[in-house]
Amino acid sequence: MYPDSRCSLEHENAFQLLVATVLSAQCTDARVNLVTPELFARFPTPAALADALQEELEEIIRTTGFFRSKTKSLLGLSAALEDRFDGRVPSSVEELTSLPGVGRKTANVVLGVAYGIAEGVVVDTHVKRIAYRLGLTRQTDPEMVEQDLIALLPEKERVVFTHRMIDHGRAICVARKPRCAECDLHDICPSSLV
DNA sequence: ATCCCGAGGG
DNA sequence: CCCTCTGGAT
């Protein structure tokens, strides 16, 4: 299933991935990919983004939702990258989550996709829902779900696992009305409706 | 009305 | 733990 699953947020470097992942909160990545070309063309570096006008930034990213707080996060994290990390995206969870607007989920995405580091597991809304339905966890708090998945998955499997869960969550195991009859896992899934 | 690759604040 | 932030798609 999903042999070639990978990150679907369009990006060319760690900085762009960080920005796109911040924008992806409570928003489809397809919509994020609609605004990032203009965003990256106007503000290609942390230094450029840190100097952006708030109003201009809000206008560009408005359709991704939560645009005021996301604008604040992008301005804050760009300034922090300049001030504390020499304009580079750091490669540890502690440093990444010290940036405004960056929590464990975003940090794990950047570490895994940009740097190939998978000490944690990305737990987004799809991973959380599907792990629960499959009986891989009984937890509902994302950090607790992550601990269960870390115990289940060797490091090499963690990055691709998340992307497969996301693909599966979009195509089959959707939130509202899962298509269990089309699911390859229906006979081993404790939540299967068929 | 519910959901989308969440995070911060109370 | 709870709440709020936000627009677009279904």
Residues in β-strands, percent: under 5%
What is the CATH superfamily of the largest domain? Hypothetical protein, domain 2
The quaternary state of the protein chains shown equals single chain
**Fraction of helical residues:** 55-70%
Structural class comes to mainly alpha
Largest sheet geometry: none
Structure description:
With 194 residues, this protein is mainly α. The protein contains ten helices and no strands. The structure holds a DNA duplex (10 and 10 nucleotides).
Give a quick summary of the entry.
By secondary structure, the chain is mostly helical. It is 57% helix and 0% strand.
Features:
single chain; 2 domains; 10 helices; Endonuclease Iii, domain 2; Endonuclease III, domain 1; globular; 194 residues; mainly alpha; DNA-binding
Note the topology.
Blueprint: H1 14-23, H2 29-42, H3 46-50, H4 54-61, H5 67-85, H6 93-97, H7 104-115, H8 125-133, H9 142-152, H10 155-171
The chain binds a DNA duplex (10 and 10 nucleotides) through helix 2, helix 5, helix 7, helix 8 and helix 10.
